[in-house]
Amino acid sequence: MTHYLNFINGQWCDSHTHISVINPATAQEYSTIASASVDDANNAMLAARQCISRGLLSDVRPAVRTTWMLDAAKAIKEIADEGALALCRENGKTLADAKDEFLEAARYFEYYGGMADKLEGTSIPLGKNYIDFTQYIPMGVSVQIVPWNFPVSICARSLAPALAAGNAVVIKSPEISPVGMVYLVRALESVGFPRGAINLLCGKGSVVGSHLVEHNDVNQIVFTGSVPTGQRILKGAAERATPSVMELGGKSAAIVLKDAATEKVISSVQTGIFFNAGQVCSAMSRLLVDKARYEEIKSAVVTMAENLVIGSGEEQADLTPVVSQAQQISVLAMIEQAKKEGATILCGGYAPDLAGYYVAPTVIEATPDMSISQQEVFGPVLVIMPFEDEQQAVKIANGTEFGLVAGVFGEALNQTLQVAQQLRGGQVFINEWFAGGIETPFGGVGLSGFGREKGQEAIYSYMQTRNIAIRL
């Protein structure tokens, strides 16, 4: 069993206390990691502040940052297999998905590396006797709180644009599933980023995470996680007017129109809600089906779900475990609450008789007002319901406090696009759930948060605009 460390100011550091990392497929301890203290957090923030104060990132020619970023992408690819095995064992996801996560992380560094030397300001005409122009300058010290469901790719999603823009970063990894991020930072360690530019801490969120976001040296907060935690962070950020990017929860709906292609719907349902055991903020949580197709689609969805192979990520099973016992208990409790409210369990709804933290693929017939239709489950649980017409479908889809993503399935382009444009959310998929990619902006409205990650738009969240006006 391997013991992992924190990374502060270019050094790997141990601590007096450790955190156990559990393999959710076996419910057994997989490894340990140093539990960062408040002192460790202060040291990391000091290192990041000194990096910024000395201009070690911002004062170099931007093309130098581009070189570092592209070298980082190459280094991440080289350790993808080794890192994927660790991520699979600590997180539960399949080996293939874990490797894809490292490759996606590498792609973030390639993509934003290509932007580092193209962040150009503008010249503003003010008349003969003036020269006026804008500059993009880095925020400074960016504190980034990373969740456990996609720790490597989500870390890279915010780390890469932050570094490309010239910021120093202090990362708080999740107590659950922190090891893959160690492999990511190991890859970045050797490619030329200056000391203090990247700092990685694993510690209790209530102690280390809270201290980091309230630190006097923080210039920006990037958070992905639950709504209650995000709200607590925002209250403190508001007092100090700290710029923040918040990617919170979701209860996303897919609308299946009368002319939708069945195979496209079923394929997207399998990916949309059962990928990563449903532990995806943008999961297809609700499936709204035209009443003319309801029985057909419902039957096909249940058949697909009942035929999924349940097992560990190392076995490349169709449905892997949820990340922890606490998560398993939470998901099963929400299913039981749905039963009490009168929902019908069409399949699943139980914990299989396996050693790890599994929840059977679950499909629930429910009404829009039930808690299972309103609250984020973060597990392999799909809510399905019929609708009478498009107006009702849109009303149901938009009828939660969330607004992260949504989807429409139908073959008539005009109709599907008209429905898509009425949906509340930062991203809408048509005929394929999770369409898009690193190049497409991602983020939500309402309780799903604000700000955008991914795409060219994201990098501007990591910079401020400065205007300089000169009287000749």
What do these coordinates show?
The protein is built from 15 helices and 20 strands. The strands form five sheets. Strands 14-15-16-13-12-17-18 form a seven-stranded mixed β-sheet, with helices on both faces. A hairpin with a 2-residue loop joins strand 2 and strand 3. Helix 9 packs across helix 10. The longest helix is centred in the N-terminal third of the chain and has 19 residues. 51% of the residues are buried.
Which properties best describe this structure?
15 helices, alpha/beta, six-stranded mixed sheet, 472 residues, seven-stranded mixed sheet
Work out the helix count.
15
Q: Label the overall shape.
A: globular
Q: Strand pairing plus helix content: what structural class?
A: alpha/beta
Radius of gyration: 23 Å
Protein name: Aldehyde dehydrogenase
Domain Aldehyde dehydrogenase: 12-468
Keywords: Oxidoreductase
Active site: 247
